Amino acid sequence: MGKSTLAYKSPNEEVDYQIVWSSTLGTDTIFSSLFTNVSSGVTLTTFYNTSTYCVIWFSGGTSGNSYEFTNQIETTGGRIYEKTLRFEVWDK
Q1: Burial 33-60 (b: 16+ CB within 10 A, else e)
Q2: From the centroid of its chain, how far is CA 11?
Q3: Higher pLDDT, 7 or 86
Q4: How far, in Å, CA of 68 to CA of 57, rounded?
Q5: Burial label, 78 (beta-carbon count in 10 A; 0-12, 13-18, 19+)
Q6: What are phi and psi of 18, to 5 degrees?
Q7: Please, are residues 29 and 35 in contact by the beta-carbon 8 Å criterion?
Q8: What CATH number does domain 3-89 carry, 1.10.10.60, 2.60.40.10, 1.25.40.10, 3.40.630.70?
Q9: Calpha distance 15→76 (Å, rounded)
């Protein structure tokens, strides 16, 4: 899948974002989730998943920079999907 801009955040914020997989899954469900390729300069603080979506919490970053991470899931049916997401950091 292609990259998409997720959101914007301030360098001082710790924020959470939800990656919804339900339209991709059909009747399948998420068995496991992994966040990889997290750009240096940001800190991934927490992540978890339900059967249809994943949540990531992160902090840090420098104003004016873009950062990326990849969410890879494995489904109970054995399928593997990935989304690479980007967010931008700006002073508010």
Answers
A1: bebeeeeeebeeeebebeeebbebebeb
A2: 17
A3: 86
A4: 13
A5: exposed
A6: -110, 130
A7: no
A8: 2.60.40.10
A9: 29
Domain residue extents for the chain? 3-89
Distance between CA 26 and CA 4 in Å, rounded?
21
Distances (CA, A) of 5 to 61, 67, 79: 15, 10, 24
**pLDDT on residue 92:** 76
Rounded Cα distance, 18 and 9, in Å: 14
Sole residue written with tokens 């690479």 = 84
* Residue 38, both tokens: 């997290």
pLDDT tens digits for range 35-81? 987 888 888 889 999 999 999 998 999 999 999 889 999 999 999 99
